[in-house]
Amino acid sequence: MSMTDRLDQPRELGLRLRPSYDREAFGRLSERIARFLGTARFLVYMTGFVAVWILWNIFAPAGWRFDPYPFIFLTLMLSLQASYAAPLILLAQNRQDDRDRIQNEHDRRAAERNQADVEYLTREIAALRIALGEVATRDYIRSELQHLQEELRDDYDAAFRAGGTR
What is the band of 17 on the pLDDT scale with cuts at 50, 70, 90? Predict the structure, then answer.
């Protein structure tokens, strides 16, 4: 943070050699322009503009023509447009790269948290499985009771045959 950005410090008065501007506003504007330059609408507009320019300078009365046949002024205008478009597109790409880098960092942190949560839950499930392995299940108790019931029936039948009375 530079001294000019601090609110608790007085502003320095004096002549500035560099103009100051809002980087964020300029960046947003460059992104809007770059987004427009990458559309079919822009291509149609530019094609129409160039076609009108050329047709005007070929078919208009001689006194109204401002850029005769080699269309040097048109070439200059298109070069000027390209010289501004390329840096604006690069600026927009750099801003997008910065946003992507920040988003990737957030995604990486979220993935690490999710991985830690999954590992924790996996350990908990394993502990529950081990604990459930020591707990008698309904089917196990049922089979043991049936087994005991059969043993009691066998003992009762053996006692009945040995004593002869019920």
Answer: confident
